[in-house]
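Field: COMPLEX_INPUT
Field: COMPONENT_COUNT = two
Field: RESIDUE_TOTAL = 383
Field: MODE = joint
Values follow.
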Amino acid sequence: MKYIKQFGIILTISFIGELCNQMIPLPVPASIYGLVILFAGLLLGWVKLDSVKETGKFLIEIMPLMFIPAAVGLLESWGVLQPIFVPVITITLLTTILVMVAAGRVTQFVIRMEGRAGKKASGSGKKGGRARKDPGVEKEGTKEMDGERGGCE
Amino acid sequence: MKVVLTESAFFGVMVSLIAYGIGLQVKKKFKIAVFNPLLVSIVLVMVALSVCHVEYDVYYEGAKYLSYLLTPATVCLAIPLYEQVEMLKGNWKAIVLGICTGVVTSLASVLAFCVLFGLGHEEYATLLPKSITTAIGMGVSEELGGYVTITVAVIIITGVLGNMIAELVCKLFRIEEPIAKGIAIGSSSHAIGTVKAMEMGELEGAMSSLSIAVAGLLTVAGASIFATFL
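Field: COMPLEX_OUTPUT
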């Protein structure tokens, strides 16, 4: 019974997501509407964590499997991909690394900066107070980022 | 044999599951990034299909049920995010700035490389949405005049690459904060990368899930501006 209810709630939210996707003229897919709806529902207490948790975790755990069919489908689009394969792969690899490093370092830099500020004000150490601090790494982070931004634009 | 396969609803799912299981075992034995369970399973299924002369459509007849679950599974990414909501509230500035940086870096670096390789507007529009989730990326590519099929391929390749290199990149560039790792992975390699973030930890996974949604939506707006540059 528990799993029926949980799966039912998750599918209902997916369905509402689909409805939103069809009714609202924005390029937002059903899954993203659904994610936002479930998150809001949990925050507002309309959906209890216990009434989606186990099934949700199961679906997340088997999520890697769900990408296999689409990826195997690359075989089918090999014809169109082949002529531009080398530049596309090069660009894909390099930009993915760039984005990962830029997003990660900026996030880390701000967390550590706020963590240090929080420590200084010691009383109001609530915001970002839990983050670890390592002042030595921070400076390098900014430098790296500046370099990247300069290079990209 | 072929008739059995064509009529089987379970063949595609079974092959995918077995391949992923083998992928996990291979990963256990050789701890190298190339032996990524997802990559191994994709290659294994491709090889199995071509060796057994099974067409993709026949495989997909069963495997489509796996794809079907993708929407509900993505919806469920709200669950770890909710469980980490305190961390989200406490670090929202870092998170917002990190994701914005990721989106701008993605668009700007695609522009830079397209200029460098001398690619035209169509190829440029095809590549612009490469770091975001497929469903949004397809729409962006179509809207801007890209080749949607190639966009889908590039998005998947980005995801698998991101999944493979995430641990190495975080180590090399000393991205150590779990929140930062999650944001890095989610904004660079969407849901397929998020699978790796989930493996790293709940906080990483939650932040990566958040990045899929936020980076996806920001890219819709950003890409339409960047599309005018080339």
